[in-house]
Specification:
The protein is built from two helices and four strands. The protein has 82 residues and is α+β, with helices and mostly antiparallel strands. The structure holds zinc ion.
């Protein structure tokens, strides 16, 4: 059951990946991206994190892979810490 009775809640499940190469980002941490954004950025080496309804859950899971995982400012703004 994903829709609320008001019909105003939309839950968008997306595939999330964490970039294996942290050297391409100014904060030098492993960034989490949606599949679409990772593709647009041309990230070659990435690890599949999972299928989540929000980036906060995705980054929490990514931290089990890379302790310094952080959300991308563009596609995961709610989980972005810089
Ligand atoms: Zn991104």
């Amino acid at each position: 059951m994903l829709a609320s009775s008001s019909g105003k809640v939309f839950i968008m499940y997306q595939f999330y990946y964490v970039n294996d190469d942290q050297t391409h980002n100014p904060g030098l941490h492993h960034e989490v991206h949606t599949e679409e954004h990772a593709k647009r950025l041309g990230i070659r080496s990435k690890t599949y994190v999972g299928y989540f309804s929000n980036e906060i859950d995705a980054v929490a899971k990514a931290k089990e892979i890379y302790w310094d995982a952080d959300g991308c400012a563009t596609c995961c703004p709610k989980a972005h810490r810089g």
